[in-house]
Design brief:
Elements: E1 7-10, E2 13-23, H1 36-42, E3 52-58, E4 64-69, H2 72-83, E5 97-102, H3 143-155, H4 157-162, H5 192-207, E6 215-219, E7 225-231, E8 234-239, E9 244-248, E10 256-258, H6 264-274
Antiparallel strand pairs: 1-2, 2-3, 3-4, 4-5, 6-7, 7-8, 8-9, 9-10
């Protein structure tokens, strides 16, 4: 988290930086879309290969702003420093600022001291149709909430994995002909068709690469990798040495574990080989 003394110029005002996130093919706020081009489109940005940094803060009137910079390295260094509990003055150069967007696409739990409470800026008379960015509601279920749920599983893998007993899996786990889904989250027969569809669609990615960022690979403990795959109406989180979890738009709030079986390891290995990785 940035110190609130940090400020970056935007137009004639200053932005008091609260936090920042990366928007790159390998790491982007999944709340914005199933893949990198879709996430960029949600912000009206072209999908540059190098990506962007998103700096979230408030101006002197307390209004929420998201500053987009193409200085990805600067934002990445700032995030790494904050994660280590270190101070870092995140001040993108004026020439690197691509856009200043009203609102925040993500929920931010802190506010800048000494300024009014966070609020949307006044409408721009020159852009009356420009709607301020806002995080998705938490009381409904849809694509954004499904992706956020998958994010949480990836971050808390050990917690979710501890809830699953390998003996609970039945059928041919990880096989598109009979996905082994634990009955811990609901009747097993109801989601099987959907899980088989998800696995089948994930297999097509191996033969026909999907839009950039649909499949991402990140570090995990040991020699394993954490895989994240998304598609129309579904998200999957897996470890290359373990099981997978599937979430679907059609199953609100359900987290469906898929056992390794005979075919899932091969699928995960193939997806990992073609996945986008952090540089």
């Amino acid at each position: 988290m940035a110190g609130t003394d940090d400020a970056v110029a935007t137009d004639d005002d200053a932005l008091y930086v609260l936090t920042a996130v990366l928007l790159t093919p390998a790491k982007f706020p999944s709340v914005l879309g199933d893949d990198y081009p879709e996430a960029c489109a949600a912000l009206g940005l072209p999908p540059l290969a190098a990506g962007y940094g998103l700096v979230l803060g408030q101006d002197s009137a307390g209004a929420r702003w998201t500053v987009v910079t193409d200085d990805v390295s600067l934002v990445a260094v700032a995030i790494a420093a904050w994660d280590c509990g270190m101070e870092y003055d995140l001040s993108p150069g004026e020439r690197t600022v691509v856009a200043g967007l009203p609102g925040w696409p993500l929920a931010v739990a802190v506010a800048a001291p000494g300024v009014p409470a966070p609020h949307d800026p006044e409408p721009d008379p020159e852009q009356p149709d420009l709607v301020p960015l806002s995080p998705p509601p938490s009381d409904t279920w849809g694509p954004a909430q499904r992706r956020l749920g998958a994010d949480e599983i990836a971050l808390q893998w050990a917690v979710w994995r501890e809830q699953i007993d390998d003996e609970d899996f039945t059928g041919v786990e990880g096989d598109t002909d009979g996905a082994g889904v634990s009955g811990a989250t609901g009747p097993q027969s109801e989601p099987l068709t959907g899980v088989r569809r998800v696995l089948a669609e994930a297999r097509t990615y191996v033969e026909t690469p999907p839009p950039l960022g649909r499949v991402r690979s990140s570090f995990a403990s040991g020699e394993a990798r954490t895989l994240r795959a998304d598609g129309p109406g579904w998200s999957m989180v897996a470890r290359t040495d373990d099981i997978a979890f599937v979430l679907m738009d059609e199953e609100p709030g359900e987290v469906l574990p898929v056992g390794r079986g005979a075919e899932l390891p091969e699928l995960l290995e193939a997806l990992d080989k073609m996945a986008v990785r952090p540089s």
